[in-house]
Amino acid sequence: MSGGVGPALSPPVIQMAQVATVALGAPLVSGVIARVEAMLQGRHGPRVLQPYYDLAKLFRKEALAPIGASPFFLAAPVISLACYLIVPLLIPVLTSYALPLGYMGDILGGGFILALASFVVAVAAAETGDGYAQLASSRAKTFAAITEPVMLLVMFTVAIVTTTDLPYVLGATVRSSPDQIVRPAHLLASAALFLVILFETGRIPIETHTGTTEFGMIEEGRSFEHSGPYLALLRWGSMAKQLVLFVIFLNVFVAPWGLASTHALGDVLLAIVLLLAKSCGVGCVIAVIDDSFAKLRLFKITEFVAAAFLLAVMAIFTLYLGGG
Amino acid sequence: MGGQSVPDLFDGTATTIAVVVLLLEFLMLRSALLRAQVRLYAVQSLVVSVLAAVVAGGRGVPELYALAAVSFALKAVIVPWLILRLMRDASTEIAGSGVLGVASEIMVALVVAAFGFFTVNVLDIHSDVLPASALSLAFAVVLVAFVLIIMRRDVVSQAVGFFSLENGVSLVSLVVAAGMPLILEVAFLFDLLVAVVVFGVLMRVHHGRTRSLSTAGLTRLRG
Fold first, then answer.
1. Which of A8, A88, B54, B212 sits most deeply, having the most CB atoms within 10 A of its CB?
2. Do A322 and B133 touch (CB under 8 A)?
3. Record: contact B12-A307, CB cut-off 8 A
4. Would you call A169 an interface residue with chain B, using a CB distance cutoff of 8 Å?
5. Comparing C-alpha atoms, which of A292, A280, A296 is closest to residue A34?
6. Contacts of residue A322 in chain B, CB cutoff 8 Å?
7. DSSP B180
8. Angstrom distance (rounded) from CA B5 to CA B161
9. Per residue in B170-186, pLDDT tens?
């Protein structure tokens, strides 16, 4: 623990700061992406802080539920947001050393919690009896099933590289030497994960996350029947999910630098700023990719997933050949 | 398995470049436009030349610089230019669909590539200049090129498949015999030129006879 600016914080406080960073920073990242996207399309675009105003407005509105929906319909947004905010406890958001609850779950556990959140929302959508919400949740589950093998193979790659499946260990491995960065297995697994993130955040290949056509929606379509504070929670949850995925991609795989290595307040604050800056950077890259490729037909999605699968399988192959 | 033995910077870079060659081969399998396929071939040749230059610099084999230059000039510039020129007369833009869908083709190619990987790995061939994994990847490139030739039903894809197969073979020769006399390597490259001429004639004649580049019509009997 060498030096560091400011008073030392206790680990539980830093752990809470990780959750708070994701919860409060996520709308900012979404706002930046929306702004960059608008600028790329030659529009002025909304304010960067617009997502916060949207959430505040929705929290003030009244909530309605369809007739016949069970209490689960109203509980689902709360559960899903809670799930998305549990994951930051497990992954290196701000610190390069593991925090007390950091070893509570491995990378697979984090994946399960993310899947649970999406499952809860899908069940709530199925309760409504609205055709579009049910269509969206059925699509979301179908496509989740075909991206799941890719995620598993990425995790296997991590497991073979580090002989553990803890996100902190992989981050430390990547930081340890440049040899680890040019490893083909690492590059391929990161590329596969990036493709999955593009898909999971509703960018490419088929989804229009900002549009209003029901047929182009997958994730967004599931919240059709929710309103008021519940809709706000769902929106907030999907922003938090996006930031969580970015954090896993950045701080575990691609750029695990700029994390606090001490308990000092100054270092933690710097880590927060750097994390949000890095996430906005990834967001800009994603916005450029999103704007420069045409959307695919729905059933072309297997091609996209096949590409990600190919990358992940190649990562495992090169590892087994001893050259990875 | 590999967990603890981390390849050094040179080996990692070389294997990554070989992986890129294989991924470009998969992209050729995927691309639906003929021109895109030829461009991918040019990029793949460029990457192979870069690998030759990397080996030349990293392992001190200066004649490989000459090989890299010749193979860049020939395979990344002249051959793609010739194919694109030949294609200008044919108005076809889109490659005929393959025997299978794209996702299934990629799965088949993946299985074939895995076969290549592991059979070559069993042979236990070692080389002084490049990691053995590059050899396995090169064999996978050759096998996936075969898949491309077999699955596609148009002359251009088949020609490009054949040329990229040659890229795989040059990758193999880089691993197995980096110190091979330059004159032999250049002889191989000129073999490729002959192949280009043959395929050019084939494309011309085929297009002249059937008014298309698809080979699907060749199964029909003519009276």
1. A88
2. yes
3. no
4. no
5. A280
6. 1-2, 5, 7, 131-133
7. S
8. 35
9. 888 888 877 667 777 78
